[in-house]
């Protein structure tokens, strides 16, 4: 296969106003300084990894494919300034991303593809594995998928008799500070999956994982419903921006 097959090429869905247009050169090619800048960023990433780059430069690498012939540094900085960090940009809802000047469908799609890939990779490290031996990977997965959400999400992790994770399912989405949860539905689904144990997980968009009285009451309702059917509730994790809280570790379960 020829080298040109891997070269950046514009796609027809890109909007002309997705980023500041760099001065063009004859033939429609991007200017040499832009090409050199991209080459340097790629070289730094390949030699030093993501740790060697600030968030806005890592975001530039993601945007290169969506905006092949324009300077994406101003857009990368604008997104970081608006949402806070690289992870928050990837996790932002499409409609919020589109509010940023210079972001069109191609940029949104590129960001969401990277987010989905990160979630799938994290999930592969915990699904069908014993929770005890992969606990940190489980925590990392929960943070990757939930820590930067702007509304509450409630998930249930279903385990078999050997504490192997057999299913990870969303049970509800809510507002910035509330998500409806139905204990009967949680336990019903456990029976359908032949699960022997559960781990509850939900996020706090505020960033503070301290459980509310409603969180504590809901957890107790699910524990009782599960216990009546010989299903064990191992833990309830509350995911904040930078840390998580375990009901089990805090003596709440």
UniProtKB/TrEMBL annotation:
A biological-process GO annotation: proteolysis
InterPro entries documented for this protein: MPN, RadC_JAB, RuvA_2-like, UPF0758, UPF0758_CS, UPF0758_N
Organism this protein belongs to: Rhodosalinus halophilus
Annotated ranges, domain MPN: 131-253
Keywords assigned: Hydrolase, Metal-binding, Metalloprotease, Protease, Zinc
Keyword Ribosomal protein found: no
SUPFAM superfamilies (alphabetical): JAB1/MPN domain (SSF102712), RuvA domain 2-like (SSF47781)
Protein family per UniProt: Belongs to the UPF0758 family.
PANTHER family found in the cross-reference section: DNA REPAIR PROTEIN RADC, UPF0758 PROTEIN YEES-RELATED
Protein name: MPN domain-containing protein
Name of a matching Pfam family: UPF0758_N
MF annotations from Gene Ontology: metal ion binding; metallopeptidase activity
């Amino acid at each position: 296969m020829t080298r040109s097959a891997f070269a950046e090429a514009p796609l027809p869905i890109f909007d002309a106003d997705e980023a500041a247009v760099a001065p063009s050169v004859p033939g429609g090619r991007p200017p040499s300084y832009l090409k050199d800048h991209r080459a340097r960023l790629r070289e730094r990433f390949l030699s030093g990894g993501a740790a060697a780059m600030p968030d806005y430069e890592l975001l530039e690498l993601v945007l290169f494919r969506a905006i092949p012939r324009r300077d994406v540094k101003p857009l990368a900085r604008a997104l970081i300034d608006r949402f806070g960090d690289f992870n928050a940009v990837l996790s932002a809802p499409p409609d919020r991303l589109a509010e940023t000047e210079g972001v069109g469908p191609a940029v949104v799609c590129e960001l969401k593809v990277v987010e989905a890939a990160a979630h799938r990779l994290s999930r592969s490290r915990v699904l069908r594995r014993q929770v005890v031996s992969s606990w940190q990977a489980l925590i990392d997965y929960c943070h990757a998928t939930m820590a930067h959400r702007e509304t509450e999400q409630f998930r249930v992790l279903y385990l078999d008799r050997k504490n192997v994770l057999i299913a990870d399912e969303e049970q509800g989405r809510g507002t910035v500070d509330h998500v409806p949860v139905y204990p009967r539905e949680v336990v019903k689904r456990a029976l359908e999956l032949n699960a022997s144990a559960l781990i509850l997980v939900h996020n706090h968009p505020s960033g503070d994982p301290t459980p509310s009285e409603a969180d504590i009451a809901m957890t107790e309702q699910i524990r009782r419903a599960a216990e009546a059917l010989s299903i064990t509730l191992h833990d309830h994790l509350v995911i904040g921006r930078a840390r998580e809280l375990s009901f089990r570790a805090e003596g709440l379960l």
